[in-house]
Structures are given as C-alpha cells and as structure tokens.
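[agent] plan:
  1. take the single chain provided in the ticket
  2. run structure prediction with default settings
  3. attach structure tokens to the ticket
  4. add a short note for the reviewer (M.T.)
[agent] executing step 1
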Amino acid sequence: ALCGDPDLGFCMDGSWSAGARVDRDGRGLAQVWTRQIQQLNRVSPALAKAVTSAYSSPSLLLQAYEELPSEEERRKLLADLAVVGGAKERRVGPELAGRIHRLLTSQNPHLLLD
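[agent] step 2 finished; step 3 output follows
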C-alpha cells in the first residue's frame, strides 16, 4: 500500500525487492551483500557477483581498503576485477570501483552515490 506514496519513490515492487531470507546460521547473507552492491545504478548481477566473489562480505572489503596506503589505491581496488558473463570480457572499472568505495566508506549521509 505504501508503494503508491509519492514520498516513497525508492519503494519497489516485485520479487527482487522482497528482500532476502537470512537464517540464524547466516545462510542468505551472501545474497544480501550481492543485492546491496546491485542497488547502485548500472550494476548488473554479474558485476555484483564479481565483487562479492572477490570479497565475500562487506567487512572483508573494508579490511582490504584499510590495508592500502592511499585513498587513490582504495578507490581503484575493485577496478580490475573481471566480470564473468556476457559476450566479451570486461572489468568493474574505476568509476564503479569508486562508487562502491564511497558506498562503504562515506560518512556523509547526504552524499549521492550515482
């Protein structure tokens, strides 16, 4: 009923938006992590899978960011990850790698990610 409210433009219909079931033992968390990445514009399931296959949790990716000496290296960490699927081989790329970095590290609640 609330999806029709114009003030809730982020509300989505369909099975994709229904959420993911997470069991007490943690089953389902990988799907939540993948969907979190897919919330960014122009992120396909294959691209999200490339990131979540390399870093199976947000905390592991954050740890990898912290281990890098410069902000520039952190922003580009994911850029060279191969995205499997489609007709040609492609990479995550620096633009999307930077957006994922901002998603996980920004402390500005008003920052637009896309």
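[agent] step 4 note for reviewer: The chain has a mean pLDDT of 83.
[agent] ticket updated
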